[in-house]
Design goal:
- Chains A, B: It is an enzyme of class 1 (oxidoreductase).
- Chains A, B: Its cofactor is a metal cation.
- Chains A, B: GO terms for molecular function: homoserine dehydrogenase activity.
- Chains A, B: It catalyses: L-homoserine + NAD(+) = L-aspartate 4-semialdehyde + NADH + H(+); L-homoserine + NADP(+) = L-aspartate 4-semialdehyde + NADPH + H(+).
- 2 copies of one chain form a homodimer.
- The first copy, chain A, has helices spanning about 20-35, 35-40, 70-75, 95-100, 110-130, 145-150, 165-180, 185-190, 200-205, 205-220, 240-250, 320-340, 375-385, 415-425, and strands at about 15-20, 45-50, 65-70, 80-85, 105-110, 135, 160-165, 230, 250-265, 270-285, 300-305, 310-315, 360-370, 390-400, 405-410, 415, 430-440.
- The first copy, chain A, has about 450 residues and is of the alpha/beta class.
- Chain A folds into 3 domains: about 5-140 and about 320-340, 3-Layer(aba) Sandwich (Rossmann fold); about 145-315, Dihydrodipicolinate Reductase, domain 2; about 360-440, ACT domain (Alpha-Beta Plaits), CATH 3.30.70.260.
- In chain A, a hairpin with a 5-residue loop joins strand 14 (about 390-400) and strand 15.
- In chain A, helix 4 runs parallel beside helix 5 (about 110-130) and helix 7 (about 165-180) packs across helix 8.
- The longest helix of chain A is centred in the last third of the chain and has 20 residues, at about 320-340.
- The radius of gyration of chain A is 25 Å and the shape is elongated.
- The first copy, chain A, starts with 12 loop residues before the first strand and ends with a strand.
- In chain A, about 55% of the residues are buried.
- At the A-B interface, helix 2, helix 6, strand 12 and helix 12 of A face helix 2, helix 6, strand 12 and helix 12 of B.
Chain lengths: ~450, ~450
């Protein structure tokens, strides 16, 4: 058995921490509490060289002598081997990490927005100097997900990644499902309980999930995908009627980040070509689907690969300690690479698959209509579907003269064809109101 | 974007495949089908140098010119960089892999029995030569699990790993739960459907799960644990009465592999000391627990860590293609390490935590008794619990004169105290029969 102390004489790995909020504070705590274990696992001790913050007097929980307001000087210091970034946002994080990578310093970051927008620059700098760039904490917090996608499944062909990657919206949708309350009421409750920020835009409009989807799609399909490539719809338009309609069909509404291989025939005679669909939108999934029972602030990601089949990864997607756990895992990896002169996996965007526009993406719709209940309604509605080449999977007609409803679930068709169908149906005189339109996922 | 072809000039990584059964055949297929992708991901092409089998004429699905019966010569060949072992069993696998590692060849193996018994020799040989030793496929098939434990959670403190890691026993217990049939009937059905082998001993007696538990405990707790250290109970003694008792309490019986940190006070005045419990036995878990809904031949592993909190990994635990996916993931990693002169993580047994005997392990029991229904039974039974310092969490008494039952769920106590309690209760004149005794897990 090796002893912890046998590594004490090795040159320590010096770490610069950028940012010291909820996650940063936990990183400092874990570095201190687990020091002997980290030393044994890495083969050398890890030491904090400095912590860059904006207002040093606000951080009484970390050693004062480590605090600095000069992040540039800290990152440029010869005394630093690894830069850990938990500031978030694009600048100054981007410039600081480029400086670090260019000078050969390893980088660990939890910054999803930065990775989703500027991964090309960062990977280029990492490739040029040979410095490691790790970012497990950027997606799904503590859940080991990027390492499995990048490494464990590197010998397989991933066909789909579908997940609940935003805790705030999952908390709100879970709440709407269990209480039947409106979106506005449930958001208010989530804000009061601290599950939603005062300005919830990044979460409820799907920006946060879209950044994560871009990162997941890049890794899963070995292609370069940025946040701007992601079709994005938030949950603000999800109504109590949508939630009730899903319940009536044994389904539940979730905000999903979906990355999948799609084969598209542009119809120009060139045949079908392979591409990827990357999107974030609310969708109904069967209550028996493994993702359906992921409630509250938890995250879960469902992965399908040709040989491995279906897999699911589940855990805490946010929070100081869980995110810090993922950061520390990466820190051990890059520090070990420095001790053993190794290198982590590089960016692999060799496949260069094109991202298909949402209109070309095959999907399925659930449509609930308030209709005039008289003979011929169904035939008029069905004619519109046929006209758009959309095939109907199931129909349910209910009610009497003044309160009739028609619920339709389609087979897969392109999103564009489905949208045109819904638009035209909404204009039929026999249709009083389009009550709910929602995509359907998680079933074939 | 890098092109696949740009790597074609790199020196190929030569692979020797040992064994060509269900998994080996899939490995050959994936190596062929995914060749361009593997080349791009590794940075060099992968080529099969040879396939060692016992009866070459039985393998028409792989190229005949690659087949050989001389595994020793294949492993010793200068033309081989990586040895992939899917023979299973201890010998000749052990000798072949030691030869490979000692000569600096990287090893990928799916051999759980070998890892669980001889990991010390293998890791020593790997350390001495600097050759990689990867074995993701040895536990839970396609589910990325060992890499997350070894790497993603390397900065955290894992406190428990609890999982369903044997598909055959899970299929049988799922069947007993849904039909109410006996163990013998359900095993017969599983054998007929091909879910159980003709000789099911390795599965139903828990040997397979125990090997996996030893591997998981070693990685999670940075300690050396072998199959012989694992307390093992199979499912042959699980009765229809046990299954029914669990159902009546909102629980379900699963065969669990459990690895957890335990703090034990030996009672000699030296205070509590840290150790680990590693065990495989049937247990009742609440139907609301994430592991409860893992049915049929699927595997799932629940992990708890101090900072990361609760996580679950779910997927296919066996089968040719899923296992081959895990083997290929490791093959990409070791091949990439050869191209980039890197090295995978070493064995880390620095913590050297002792494995506690089952008797010292804190656990909880469910006990169902057939009793004489008269005043004083409960007080006599309760007195035996008190005498052994076992605290009762819940009691349910049912029935009339001739058919009375008493169901007791305990608080945590050592397994030894619980066993003594049950033995003594079984001897009380007022107790007609001990109907069911089952450990309770997954709740605090």
């Amino acid at each position: 058995m090796r002893k912890v102390s046998s590594h004490a004489h090795r040159k320590p790995i010096k770490v610069a921490l950028l940012g010291c909020g909820t996650v940063g504070t936990e990183v400092v705590r874990l570095l201190t509490d687990q020091a002997p274990d980290l030393t044994a696992r890495i083969g050398a001790p890890v030491e904090l060289a400095g912590i860059a913050v904006r207002r040093p007097n606000k951080h009484r929980e970390v050693p004062a002598e480590l605090l600095t307001t000069d992040a540039e000087a800290l990152v440029a210091s010869d005394d630093v081997d690894v830069v850990v970034e938990v500031i978030g946002g694009i600048e100054p994080a981007r410039s600081l990490l480029l400086t670090a990578l260019r000078s050969g310093k390893s980088v660990v970051t939890a910054n999803k927005a930065l990775l989703a927008e500027h991964s090309a620059d960062l990977f280029e700098a990492s490739d040029a100097s040979g410095a490691d760039l790790y970012f497990e904490a950027a997606v799904a917090g503590a859940i080991p997900l990027l390492r499995p996608l990048r490494e464990s499944l590197a010998g397989d062909r991933i066909t789909r990644v579908m997940g609940i990657v935003n805790g705030t919206t999952n908390f709100i949708l879970s709440g709407m499902d269990s209480t039947g309350a409106s979106y506005a009421e449930t958001l208010e409750e989530a804000t009061r309980l601290g599950y939603a920020e005062a300005d919830p835009t990044a979460d409820v409009d799907g920006f946060d999930a879209a950044s994560k989807a871009a990162i997941l799609a890049s890794l899963a399909f070995h292609s370069r995908v940025t946040a701007a490539d992601v079709h994005r719809e938030g949950i603000a338009a999800v109504s109590a009627a949508d939630i009730a309609a899903a319940k009536g069909l044994g389904r539940i509404v979730k905000l999903l980040a979906i990355c999948e291989r799609v084969s598209v025939d542009a119809g120009d005679g060139s045949g079908a070509s392979e591409g990827i669909s990357v999107r974030v939108h609310p969708a109904m999934i069967p209550r028996s689907h493994p993702l359906a029972s992921v409630h509250g602030a938890f995250n879960a990601v469902f992965v399908e690969a040709d040989a491995a089949g279906e897999m699911m990864f589940y855990g805490q997607g946010a929070g100081g300690a869980p995110t810090a756990s993922a950061v520390l895992g990466d820190l051990v990896a890059v520090a070990r690479n420095r001790v053993h002169s190794g290198r982590g996996p590089r960016e692999s965007a060799y496949a260069g698959l094109p991202v298909r526009p949402m209109g070309q993406t095959p999907t399925r719709y659930h449509i609930s209509l308030d209709v005039a209940d008289r003979a011929g309604v169904l035939s008029q509605v069905a004619a519109v579907f046929a006209e758009h080449d959309v095939s109907i999977a199931a129909v349910r007609q209910e009610g009497r003269v003044d309160d009739a409803s028609l619920v339709i679930v389609t087979h897969a068709a392109t999103d564009a064809a489905l949208r045109s169908t819904v638009d035209k149906i909404g204009g039929l005189p026999v249709v009083r109101e389009v009550v709910s339109v929602m995509r359907v996922e998680g079933e074939e």
